[in-house]
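re: ur question from yesterday

yeah so i grabbed the chain u mentioned. its 272 aa long if i counted rite. heres the sequnce exactly as i have it in my notes:
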Amino acid sequence: MNNRNTASQFNTDNDENIAGSYIYGRNAVVESLNAGHPLEKIYIAYGTEGVSIDEIRRLAKTKGVRVAQTDRRKFADLELRIAANRGIAQGVIALERIVDTIDVHELIDAAYQITDTPILVALDGINDPHNIGAIARAAECAGAHGLILSIEKSSPISPIAFKASAGALAYLPTAKAGTLEPALKDCKAAGFRLIGADSESSKKYSEIDTEVPIVLVIGSEGTGMTPSVRRLCDERVKIPMYGKIPSLNASVAAGIILFSIAEKNNDNLKDS
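ran it thru and got these structure tokens back, copy pasting raw so excuse formatting
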């Protein structure tokens, strides 16, 4: 039997209809790769082997599609949600590409075509799709000009992320980079100032100079920015905490800083 099994409009949280779909089954995934179907990521259950699995890995490498070896329990949970039956996926599930992404240089060029002081948001190790979607929503609402994701260290744009963005990911230009550091260096070379959100900084987010192009870097909630990314930042800023809990959700922190920048930019326009 050779179906192209697709769980379209699937939400892994509550099964409500949202954009995006999954393809499952070895033959179906091989066919999709051979046909050049836009795939975001392929999940292979740990220990799954065979000729078709080798072919999937070979084709994925050729097509530039990331393959992730996935814990069997996590894979089984995903399989049950999208296929409603364990074992039917034959150890392979592919996530279809939900939004088109562009090269970092294309993102930079597009941002500068809109304004001399664009704002980009770069995510360093954000692995929760809800956070990716919520950050994208805040960025789009605050007037940011693009999002930069690391293929290696950030979660892919999944149906959960798309839904959490409330559609923002359909409007916000998004670039993917293998690792974040080269992309950030390209931004610096293009005149952007890298500003990292860092709870250990002595500088407040309200002190950011918004009259320059900015890349706001948001790290993971657990460990923050990776050391190599932190070193690349031109400055780091914090959001002062006044309660008993010492930190904010990454998407909330991103929203506070982005809207502070947006408000300053609007005030500057009024004064000019």
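noticed a couple things. The CA atoms of residues 261 and 267 lie 10 Å apart. also The radius of gyration is 20 Å.
anyway ttyl
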